[in-house]
C-alpha cells in the first residue's frame, strides 16, 4: 500500500497528489512515468511523474475516466494499492539555444520536469500553456518561477490569447530563429497539430505518447505505436518520441478502443 | 510388460467448461492414484528421473503412494521440486518423464504428471510443505522475478540458509504462472499457496519493484546483496511483422492473457480492466500460449475461435493434453496457413489473409519447414491474437550496460549460470528465450548451487 501524504484540488477536473513511494523516487528522472492501481480490482493506469524527492512522487491527473475519478475520491492519509516505477526512458535533455514547451490541459504536469530540466541545462525556455478556460490552466505559478517567457491560451478567451496553442507556436517559430527545440505534451490531437507546425518550420519536436498500457514493462505490447511504419512500445521505447512520423491518428484510434467499456464502468461509479 | 491402460483423469464436460474458468482436468482421487501407481515397474535405472529437469525421484515417490504413505510421497517430491502441484499440471510430461518411461515403448507410459499433481495437491491441502530452514548463513541474495526460475532459486538458497529477497515487477507474484497461464489450467490459489510456503520459509517478497528501473543491479550491490539471480523471464512478445498488426482487435497473447489472468477482465465491470473479442477470433501460433489464448477467448464469449498455424498438427509445439482439450472445446484448427496481412475498417480488424503452406525438407529444428504455395485464403475475424513466441524482457539489459546478451536478447551465461557481471547469475526464459516452467525451475535450482559456491568464497 502506498500512502497519499498530500493532495490539492487544482480545479474541478484536476488533482495533485504526493505519494510515498521510495522505490519509485530513488531513480526517477524527467520523462519517467508510474503505473498505479487505486484498489485491488483496479486498472493499471500510467501517469507521468510531475516531480519527486527522496521518498515521494508527485502526480497530477485529470479525472476523466473511471479509475482517475476513483483516485480523486482518495484523501490525504488514504492509500492506493499499487504504485510502480519509474517507467519509460528518461527524456534526453541537453542544452539548447531556445526551447518552446507546449502543453495542453493536464499536459502541463508531464511537461513541467522536462522544461525545468532544459532551463537547468542553460537553455532559454518559453512556455505555451493552453486550456479550455482560465480555471483549467494549471501550474501557472510553478512555471512562472523559471520560464523566460510564457504565453497562455484559452478556448474561450477567458485568460491569455483566445484560441489554440498552435497559433502562438506558429507565430514564435516564424519569427524567432533561435528556437531549436519544441516539446509538446497534451491531447494527441494537439500534439499532432503542434508537430505539423514544427515540421513546417523545420524544428525538432518531441511529443509524449500516452496509449493504453497494462504492465508498462514491455511484456504485453498493448501500448504499441506506429512511427514511420515501425512498431514501438511506448512503455519501454518511449513515452517520448520525435513527433515526426508518429502515426497520431492510429494512436487516437487505439486510445478509444475501450470507450464503451469505460462508459460502463463510469456509470457504475455514478450509480454507487 | 504392464499392459494395463493408463488411468484416465476425470475432466469437466467440454461444453460446460468452455464457458467457465474452473479447472478442466479434475485430478485423481486416491483410488485412481493407487491404480495408476501400480503400473510403475520401478526400473533399476529410471529413465524418467534422468528426463526430469529437476530430477524428481519418480519411482520412489510412486512407491510411497502404493504404500499409502502420502506424506512420504510428498516429502520425496518436495526434496527436488518445490512446485509439484504446478508442475503436475503444466509440465510437458510427454517430452520429459513420461516420454522416457519404458512402458511407453510398447504401450502407454505411467501418468507421472497426474500422480505428481495428486501428491502435490495432497500436500497443499494438508499443509505438508516443509518450510523449516535448518541453518542460517551470512549472505544476502536478491532474486529478480517471482516466476518459476526465481521461485526455485529463492527456495534453494533459503534452504541453504541465505537471506533471500525476491523482487517482482507486477502487483502479484508468480510471473508467467500468474499473468500467463489461465485459471482453468492452473488455478491461481495453487500459485498463491506456493508463494505462501516460501514466505513461511522466510523468503522476503517485494512487489512493484522493477530491477533495472526501481533499483539497478549496482544499487542492489550497494544495498548489500552479495549475489543476484536474474529470472526476469521472456516478457517481450514477438510480432508477425505483417501489415495491419496495430489495428484495434489485434492482441499479443501476452496482453490478452494478462487482461484476463492478472487483471480479471473476465469479470468486467466488477474488475475495472475490460476486454473484447467479438464473435470470431483467430489465434496465430501453435504453442501452449496459443492454446491458452484460444480457450480463454471461447470462455469470455467468442463464438468461433480458430488456431492458425503454419505447420501440421503433429508439429504443434503445445502439450498434447492442451491440444486435445482445445479441440474438444470446439477450437477450429486451420493448419498449414501463414498470415500475410490483417485487414481492418475504421482501424478495427475485419479479416486476416493467410497463405497456404506445405511441408518441405527438415530445418535446423528437425521439423519439416513450411513452404509457401502461392495460394491464399482470407478468414473473416473480429480479433486476432498473435502468439508466436516471446523474447527475453529488455528492461534489465537497457539499464545494465555490462550485462552481455545475445542479439535476440537472451542473457549470456556460462555453464554455472554466471553472467558477465561478477556476482550476477541468470536462468530460465531470460537466458533461453521462452521455454517451459520446469526448465526455468531447473535453471533456478542449478544456479542456486553455483551461487552457494560463490557466496562461500566471499
Any overview of this molecule?
The complex is a heterodimer of chains A (272) and B (458). Chain A has 272 residues and is α/β, with parallel strands linked by helices. Helix content of chain A is 28%, strand content 32%. Chain A has 2 domains: 2-87, Elongation Factor Tu (Ef-tu), domain 3; 98-255, Nucleotide-binding domain of ferredoxin-NADP reductase (FNR) module (Rossmann fold), CATH 3.40.50. In chain A, strands 12-11-10-9-13-14-17 form a 7-stranded mixed beta sheet, sandwiched between helices. Chain A has a 5-stranded antiparallel beta sheet with strand order 5-6-2-1-7. Chain A has a 3-stranded antiparallel beta sheet with strand order 4-3-8. In chain A, β13 (179-185), α6 (188-200) and β14 form a beta-alpha-beta unit. Chain A is globular, with a radius of gyration of 18 Å. The model of chain A has no long low-confidence stretch (mean pLDDT 93). By secondary structure, chain B is of the alpha/beta class. Chain B folds into 3 domains: 14-125, Alpha-helical ferredoxin (Fumarate Reductase Iron-sulfur Protein, Chain B, domain 2); 140-235 and 391-456, 3-Layer(bba) Sandwich (FAD/NAD(P)-binding domain), CATH 3.50.50; 250-386, FAD/NAD(P)-binding domain (3-Layer(bba) Sandwich), CATH 3.50.50. Chain B contains 19 helices and 13 strands. Chain B has helices at 14-17, 30-37, 47-50, 58-66, 70-80, 84-90, 97-100, 103-106, 112-125, 148-159, 176-179, 188-201, 217-222, 253-261, 288-299, 320-328, 395-399, 429-432, 437-456, and strands spanning 140-144, 163-167, 204-206, 227-230, 250-252, 280-284, 304-309, 332-335, 337-345, 348-362, 368-380, 383-386, 424-426. In chain B, β7 (304-309), α16 (320-328) and β8 (332-335) form a beta-alpha-beta unit. In chain B, α5 (70-80) packs across α9 (112-125). The mean pLDDT of chain B is 94. At the A-B interface, β8, β15, α8 and α9 of A face α14 of B.
